[in-house]
# Entry
Amino acid sequence: MDRFVSYYTLRLDAKGRVSVPAPFRAVLKRDGLDGLYCYPALDRPALDAGGKALMAENEALIASLPPASPERDRFSLSLYGTSETLKIDREGRVSLTETLKAHASIVDAVTFVGLGHKFQIWEPTRFRTELASATEQIRALKGAQQ
# Structure
């Protein structure tokens, strides 16, 4: 499979490392990356993460904006300026920086959430709240269409 799917909640170890779920590592490996790109999500208290597909999406978005435009500079700053390349160690773990953890309010556990071409990293309680809200909105939308 070439997509990030499902979700996994894992604890950070004493050194602040967390294991990237094996299915996610497999997608990254097939993508030709031995780490992952990670940055604060622009519209959520979470982290966007992934491999080359995520960076290609960001590059396409930025390239679609007029050169030297304020919008292009803002997107470049927000996406490239805050991105970090996290190395995955031999045991499949990454260390989240303090900046990344602060954005997502991560303390001792994280939830990895597959979103197809990318995944997000959430503080578990915030993820459960976000999932409940999204599910409620989709049910309401589906009900309105029937």
